[in-house]
Design goal:
By secondary structure, the chain is an all-alpha fold. It has one domain: Alpha-lytic protease prodomain-like. Helices cover 89% and strands 0% of the residues. It has seven helices and no strands. It has helices spanning 7-73, 76-90, 92-100, 104-134, 142-170, 173-200, 206-244. Helix 2 packs antiparallel against helix 4 (104-134), helix 3 packs antiparallel against helix 4 and helix 4 packs antiparallel against helix 7. The chain is elongated and about 60 Å long.
Length: 245
């Protein structure tokens, strides 16, 4: 038969058991919990670096393919898209460094670097477009030009998916801004296809006109990306203030 303990002994054992759990929970809170935070930080850093690395590889391959096609077609619409895609690829560097050092402020600075890179690419594309209005050129290999637009669209969309999924999962405003930026760039690349189509129909001025439209879209992307990063900066300041108090 099972041994029945007196009520006093049962209560004593129950108390000892509860106290043991209480001490264990306290130790986990004081020691294990802090280790958990470090682990999550490391995992977030690795996930961010992985997403940034993949997007860098995708956009670099996209820009290299478009650069080859530009050397054959000399399309200013393609050049505007090409410059922008190279700029997009380079934004992965400050973002990757921010994730490597696990710095929220570093991510904010990286977000500002993303906005600056987008703006500079818009200025370069604008200069090339104006030059093409002044000195128009005849485009060649229009089918290659259309293929460059398809490559740009696919490359940017894949990079956007990688950045957006990781950015939302990691709650990184800079990565989300870069993902939205890449997604819009994919539709900008469709302008290159439009340029090849319209020029093929005999309207040669369409190439610099579409190049100008692409430049204006890039400027709009600059503004929207700035607002995203700026809002994240304000949220971060509130978090820092709450932590200080």
């Amino acid at each position: 038969m099972p041994r029945v303990l007196p009520a006093g002994n049962r209560d004593s054992r129950r108390c000892d058991h509860a106290e043991g759990h209480s001490d264990l929970d306290l130790n986990e809170h004081e020691h294990g919990h802090s280790h958990g935070l470090v682990d999550r930080s490391v995992l977030r850093s690795r996930a961010g670096i992985r997403a940034v690395s993949w997007s860098l590889a995708i956009l670099t391959a996209t820009a290299v393919a478009q650069a080859f096609i530009y050397s054959r077609t000399l399309s200013v619409a393609l050049l505007a898209d090409l410059i922008h895609n190279f700029g997009d690829a380079l934004t992965a560097i400050p973002l990757g460094l921010a994730f490597f050092f696990r710095s929220p402020r570093g991510e904010r600075i990286a977000g500002l670097a993303v906005v600056l890179a987008i703006f500079i690419s818009a200025l370069v594309a604008l200069g090339q477009t104006i030059e093409r209005f002044i000195h128009p050129r005849t485009l060649a290999h229009l089918w290659l030009l259309a293929a460059a637009g398809v490559i740009g669209f696919v490359g940017n969309e894949v990079a956007a998916q990688v950045r957006l999924r990781a950015g939302r999962r990691l709650q990184s405003a800079a990565l989300v801004a870069d993902g939205n930026h890449a997604r819009v760039d994919g539709f900008v690349s469709l302008g290159v296809i439009a340029s090849a189509t319209v020029v093929g129909l005999g309207l040669k001025v369409a190439d610099p006109v579409i190049g100008l439209v692409i430049t204006l879209v890039i400027l709009r992307i600059t503004w929207e990306s700035w607002r995203t990063v700026r809002n994240a900066e304000i949220d971060l300041e509130h978090i820092d203030d709450a932590h200080d108090h």
